[in-house]
Each structure stands twice: as C-alpha cells, then as structure tokens.
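Hey,
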Amino acid sequence: MNAAGAGKSSANGRLRTLWRFLYLSGVALAVSCWIQSDQLLAAQGARQFKAGAATGNITPWLGISLAGALHDRRAEHIHDELNARCLVLDDGATRLAIVVVDNTIVSQQLWREIKQLTHQRTGIPVEHMLMSATHTHSAPALVKANQMEPDQDYLRLLKVKIADGVQLAINHLAPARIGWGVGQVPEFVFNRRWKMKPGTIVHNPLGGFDQVVMHPPAGSPDLLEPAGPVDPDVSFVAVESLEGRPIALLANYSLHYVGVPAGHVSADYFGAFADHMERLLEVQRQDPPLVGILSNGTSGDVGWRNLRRTLPKADRYHWVDRIAAVVAAEVFRVHQTLEYQDWVSLDVINAELELGVRLPSPGEVERAQRIVDQTEYPLKISPGNRNQALKQYFALETTLLSQYPETLTRPLQVVRMGDLAILAIPNEVFAETGLELKQKSPFGSTFTISLAGGRSYLPPPRHHPLGGFETWRGEHSYLEVQAERKVVGKLLEMLEALKSRRSENALGN
C-alpha cells in the first residue's frame, strides 16, 4: 500500500473509532439518564415535590339502606365513621389525586360525576384522579342493585364530601419526600373458592351443578382444594414532610373484607388500619393529621378465614381489629427501613376498554320471567330458604341483565410515581390476576387497586366452567368470559407505554 492509501486507511480507522466512541458514549448517557431521570428532571426545573392529605367524613344517617347483601338491610347502629381518604401529589409539573372511599361499590357513572365536581373545585384534570372503593360491606348502597335503591340525598352528600376532601388535601400541600415498600401478611388471606370432592352436590341457581363453591362450611370433609392462589403482599406508599412529619400512607392488601354485625355502619378493617397506623407512628394529635389509607387489592376470590378448620367464636370486631393491627404492624416494620426520595416524577395513563356482556338467551329470559311473575319481591335470603330464594333472585337478575347492551366500555388506569406503578381496575379482581400483573410489570414495584369504578367480578377464563358465586351471571358478574385476559393485556400495554414515556422524557432532558 502506498503512503496516500495508508494515510487514508489510518484516517478511516480513526473515524470509525471516533464513531464507536460517540455511539457507546450515547448509549451510556441514555442509560445514565434513564436511571437518574427523576433527579435530572428535578434539577433542570428546580421542581419541588409536594404532598397533602385529608379526609371527607361520609358517615350516613340511621335508617339508610346498606349495601353488601343480596337483600335490603337498614342501618341501625354506627360503630365507626366512614371516610373518603384523599391524597394529592405534585411534582411541579403533574398533580395527581388518589381517593379511597369507605363503600362497597361506586358505579362508573357516579365516579364520573364525582370527578367532574372535584375538577371544577380543584382544577385537577379528571384523568389525573384515581378513585376507588374499599369494599366494606357495611356502608350505604350507592347503586340500584340487590333489591335496593340508593338514597339520593346521600349521593349528593357523598359527591360534595369527596370534593371537599381533595380540596382540603390541596390546602395541606407542603414540600415532601416519598418512599414505598412491600411487606407480607399471609396469615389472613385464603382463597374462598373451593373445589369440592366428586359427588358433592353444589347447586347453581341458574341451572346445573358447580365444581366450586364460595365460602363452603369451615372444616367440611368435602373440601378438596382451593381453586386459586392468594397474594400475601401488603404494598404501601409513604409521604412525609422534609422535617419527617408523616403526611399520608397509602397501603394495598388483597383481602376482600372482614364483616361486621348486620345493620352496623363500619369502615371494616380498612378504617381500623388507619387508626392503628396513627398509634404506631405516634401521631394521634398531629395537625394536620396523618391520613392512613388502605385500598383493596386483588381480592375477588380471597377471604380471611382458613376454611380447613373452624374458628373459635369471637365478636366480629375482634377480627376486624386483629387483622388491621397485624397488617399495620407489618407496614410499620417495613416503614422503618424506607429510603425516601425528595423528588420523583409523576405520570398517569388512561384507557377505555370495550368488553362483551354475557347476555341471557331469549329462552333463558322467558323461563326467568315465569319465575319472577310467581315471586313476591323483595326477597330475604336466609339459610332456611337459600336454594329456592337464590333461584328466584337470579331469575330477577336474568330479566334485568337482558336489558344490558351487548358491549360496555370500562376505564383502566395506571399511575406512576418514579419506578412504582399503581394499576386501577373497575372490578372485583382475582388474586391470580394481580400476581400476574406484578410479575410481568416492567416497573420495579407494582400493585393493583380494584373497585376503581363499576361493578362485576373479573374471573380468569378458567374459572367460568368451575362455577361458583363469582361466575354466576347477574348484575354482579356479567362480563364476557375472556374479559380478564383483555384487561390484563391492555394494562400490560399501558405499563410499557408509561415506561417508554419515562425513558423518552429522561433522554429529552
């Protein structure tokens, strides 16, 4: 090779080396930006993370219809107050509101009205609000269902008090830092759907027999095995002032509810958890007060009793307090190890998913109408008339469901706080669904809040042939068999979209 060729080759080599260096440097920079995205974004705009929390008292009056049963029950006693527990977070660019309401079910339409009023009062975009119900079974009926009518005066009160709670949380906004963690409380989560031994007769009020029963008799020799897993995690987010004053604690546990005496108004163990957190953190008289929040995870098939054995008789509030105390103690234990961040970026993504409805056939509607015509409603279902009353109850449900459209849209939401993702699903979600979402999420920590608008259980497809209350077609369970698969698929898409958006924001800054 002549000197000119050698020189050109050498120059090309140096150019390739330079490009390789620049490429690798760019990759390293991108990775560094992604890892430190929150710190870079905070430094660029000198943004300050803020948090504020408050409660809106939504305790009803005596005599109001209570949800949580298949027949009407009236409030006879108020054991403890119901609240809408509100948390507002602000990273300097995005403001989010999270509200958890002590109630059984809040309809999708009612949530729309509440969010719109809250937006008018606070300016927070409707899309930036995550609102859910705890699923206590001792709160006022908010939807026309289970032979009950909601009280219109209470609905008006509820809307205003929730908007008040969010507005007060904004009033309390202060510079804050945030941390999150996960503990485990396996001793109070048991799958309540049990496969029964062959030959066991399990009546299905819609016709035929089931392989699975919800809440079979404790200690029954006919129990075979649980129909699914449980999730023992108790996940939580904690925010405190820069001086260390606790502001709020949002926890999530996958236990359906505990239950209290009939006719009692109570926030169940969700409310008791907040009381225990105040005591453990020694902030009972703090101003503004700590807002402890326990949201319902993926508990659609989970109860608190180990049905392999019978439990000693005890007042139901004993179990409400005991379970709340153990969950709070585990949160407190992990809370002591948290590493707080002075700033994290916030983001949210929303989607509407169209799902089919399991409509009854014309023949099924005709047979159900004959039963309805011969039955006096409202029914009161008791152990003595259970099979016949359930048949009559679901005949009425069949006629009501026949008026539903073929498809419905349901809202899905993912909120991101740094490397934590919180999913919101408007259904009663099974534990195995929540476990799958955690396992497949691209974020460091993930948990799901159920009952975030709308009704209906969301059984995975494999559960439909097994039967059981959670699958019986009615206003409590009407979505298509593949609905759960579609919800999971859409949420995983949303998680990936949020992850990509976070990475793009980091590179752009």
